Amino acid sequence: MSKSNSLVALPIFQASLSASQSPSYIFSSHNGTRVVFIQDNIIRWCNSLTESSYQSLDFSRHLILDDTFRVISSASGDLLGFFNVQEIFVMEVPWGYNNIEEASVQDAFQLFHYSVGQVENGSRSLIKKVLFHPKSYHDSCIVVLKEDDTITMFDILNQQHKPIVLNKRSNSFGLDARVNDITDLAFSRDGLTLYCLNTTEGGDVFAFYPLLPPVLLLGEKDLGWILNKSLVMYESLDSTTDITVKRNIIKQLQLVSKLHENLDSQLGKVEIDEEYRLVKMQGPFTINPFPDELYEYTAANITTIPIDNMQNEIVCVGFDDGSLNLLFQDLEMSMSWDVDNYVHNNSLVLIERIKIQETDIKSLKTLPEELGKLYVFSENSVHQLDSTNWSAILSRCIEESDLNALGDVKFESKLENIVTIEHPSNLAYISWNDTSNLVLTARGKLTFQNISNDKELQTTKFDANNKSDRIDAGKHYEMSFTQPINEILSLNESFQKACISPCEKIIPPAYRQMPLKNEASENQLEIFTGISKEFLQKIIKAQSLGFSIYNRIQEQQFELTRQLQATSKIISKDADLQEKLGAQNKKWDAQVSRQVKLMERFKKLTENLSQIAESKKLREKNINRGEMKWFKEIRNQILQFNNFVRSQKSLQQDLSYMKKELTRIEAETIKTDEKTQNEWDELRKMLEEDSKIIKECNEELMHVSQQLTTNTQSKN
């Protein structure tokens, strides 16, 4: 079995039921070691490093997951968000809990619920997108984009706080400074900037900076980064700087100072005043150069691609013609709170434009473990855009403040179709068995791709009815059930409710008594088709339940076989145990009798000591010579022991000193040897050079001698 197939054998994926009809989602965190899989209104979770089995929680009491819902996960993997156009549910993943069956305990993990009908929590407009704030403490803040282009921040752990609503309509007459037609949102890598994609003019990028949660998760390193940027911007102010820019930069420096004063360094958090959370949109960003052909198309998606483990990133904007524009922010923008239509250093540089064949881009997704890579989801495929051949160099140049290396770089990313599959929903990175894998969910399928080492893609499609080898349970005895019993019981309860409930499609009385062969037969067939679809859904649930029970029975048979084997081994060892038991009983009896004798002696000794303590005659009696000799011997032994301790300490000190001296001598010897070798090398080189010089001199003398001889002979 290949490594990717080993990942398929994880029980959390083996439990995929009714996959052909139920939407599924997968998420990971902690470098791909914590996995969350959602299907059939059940959350399954496990730690791939420490657990071979998984835990589950049925949330059907709170919501029924269907195609209208979308699911997101927080960066820590602790919270899940379920939302459609009407409602938002936030649930906690019960890491560390087992067998959560009681309803009261299940309700404790339902943290937050919002409906658009709650007027006190914002407008009644429908929900367009929801994001977890990446810098909120305990993932306690969610950001909601609505159809009326307002952006609302909810504190899900303290729902008494009134939500913050941004980009609201102005009640005053005249031009409204709000931004309309917001189609997508994306957070920056540092979590303080929220990019907004506006489609009024085709595709403009705006930003909220800073977008702060009620409690900010902030480390000292990040705080130092923000402080340095603010100081540089403050020092760059001069008499020509616009007054609004000065006011914003000064307020930015004041905010950073408060963050520094109020930071809880142990917990890495700081509370934010409401005045610093009421920010206004700034922009639009200039994009230079902007491709002329894109003026005819409309932007649809925006996201940020991390290119290193620091703060550097690439902004990607997707258009409805299949184009992907990779942009880089070349100027440092300032924070802005109370200025309308604020523009200062809002600039993006176009690095590369890539066009894919599919124009129906559904979403753009990045993974924190895959730096410089973007995954493009369309209706029937998933593409991978790999920019690491130039983004890694760009990151290094930024960190080293040296752009010379960019001169020879070709800004050309690799684009490949990594999988062709209908209706892909989500992608996750999973680290399992020392391998790196991508797991893609779609309706009815899980696709696994091994991306370890040389990044060879090994794809295995997994159907819900496939059965793979089980994972070895380990050396100690463990139950081999891959699916918790409470999950099967919840599926049974759901099926029983579906059986009891009547059909939603009601046959009108006018069609009930009519024969099928008539002019209205098409209407009757349409009614029968709807009813058959309902029964088909019930049959699918029954098949899923039956398949689950069948697997459970097989596993119970296997478990019974294991237990019978273990019992047989124990019984077979009974004869040996009985033989050893007799010998051990004899030893035990001997030890018990000896113990009794010792206790009797101890009792007599105690009585004697008591008599001595109570007798005045024995207390006043002088010590005899034998006792004096005995006490003297004890004193000598104590003194000798103390001498041994002192001599041992002295020897240890001498040994430590000798060890240090030997280390020093060894180091000096190595240095001396190296110095001697170097001197010999220099002497050898000098002798070689002298030899060359002498040889050249000899040749010159021979030449001169020959010339003198020739001249002398010619004169004679």
Automatic annotation (TrEMBL):
<dbReference type="GO" id="GO:0006606">
    <property type="term" value="P:protein import into nucleus"/>
</dbReference>
<dbReference type="GO" id="GO:0006406">
    <property type="term" value="P:mRNA export from nucleus"/>
</dbReference>
<keyword id="KW-0813">Transport</keyword>
<keyword id="KW-0509">mRNA transport</keyword>
<dbReference type="GO" id="GO:0017056">
    <property type="term" value="F:structural constituent of nuclear pore"/>
</dbReference>
<keyword id="KW-0539">Nucleus</keyword>
<dbReference type="GO" id="GO:0005643">
    <property type="term" value="C:nuclear pore"/>
</dbReference>
<dbReference type="GO" id="GO:0000055">
    <property type="term" value="P:ribosomal large subunit export from nucleus"/>
</dbReference>
<dbReference type="InterPro" id="IPR037700">
    <property type="entry name" value="NUP88/NUP82"/>
</dbReference>
<protein>
    <recommendedName>
        <fullName>NUP82-like protein</fullName>
    </recommendedName>
</protein>
<keyword id="KW-0811">Translocation</keyword>
<dbReference type="GO" id="GO:0000056">
    <property type="term" value="P:ribosomal small subunit export from nucleus"/>
</dbReference>
<keyword id="KW-0653">Protein transport</keyword>
<keyword id="KW-0906">Nuclear pore complex</keyword>
